[in-house]
Amino acid sequence: MALMHPCLLILVALPVTFSKWEDYITGKGGIKWLPNCEFPGFDIVQKEMTQEKCGQFCIATTHTNGCNAFSWQSGWCYLKKIPGHSLSRQPTTGGSCGVLPWEFEDGDPLDTGQDSSGIKSNITDQPRQIQCAYIKNVAFDEYLFAADDTYDENSRPVFTWRSKREGHPRDWSSTQGLWILEEGSPKNVYSIKNAYRQELLYASDCRFAQYERQVFTWRNPTRYDHGHLHWQLEAASVNTFYIKNRMFDEYLYAVEDALSFDPVRRKVHTWTQSRDVSAWAGVGSWVVETTTCPN
């Protein structure tokens, strides 16, 4: 009787079902990954980098090359574009493999299919739904808007409007305070575009301080990092949400008075440390007031 060597692996393709990714580990930006595996074939890009950066590289380039999965082996990241019916993984010694689950729309494992209309009373549950809304911070009763001035050639600051004397952004003749929410996949994950500027809200790589990350709208439509633009709406109460950036797993919040930009503009950042936004006394809570989209 022949004995199998204890270190010998039998390479058998394991089909991946779309109903669940229960055996996968959730990584930064919502990726799903596993150690000691690979997805054979369907390579579109290969690049030398650390294992930790491979999944983020896939997120950052999916809008240009269609990356929806990746493998990392021996210092090399292999980006993949795999048809859903061909997604299978093989065991390896070392390395890792992972997917962007939202790029596999059929039966997305992060989509529970549960009806949340009891809380999301004015946000519909239809996929790819486009809605317009004013976004108001609960703690300060101030609306989010995109500034007139710019930060650099690619970025525009966003604030909440502090001045009650000059009215709320929702009362302005322009649409600087109006936002277009387009739901993607999974449910409750949105791109958030300023209606006036036609620029997407994003969390930058730049930190303002030790625990704060800067938030802008992105001015350059031909060059952007896709993962920074995804925002997940987590229901807090009726029409009120915590807004979390999917790339960094950080929540949007309005800073205290002492850190405001000026007397009429309050800075808006993401918080890089605490995840317990329910304890923030409303600075991390946002009312989404839906309205008719402009023609």
Automatic annotation (TrEMBL):
InterPro entries cross-referenced by the UniProt entry: Ricin_B-like_lectins
The record's section on SUPFAM superfamilies has: Ricin B-like lectins (SSF50370)
Supply the alphabetized keyword list. Signal
Family annotation (CDD domains) = beta-trefoil_Ricin_CqDVP-like (cd23667)
Residues spanning the signal sequence: 1-19
Protein name listed in UniProt: Apple domain-containing protein
User: What organism is the protein native to?
Assistant: Daphnia magna
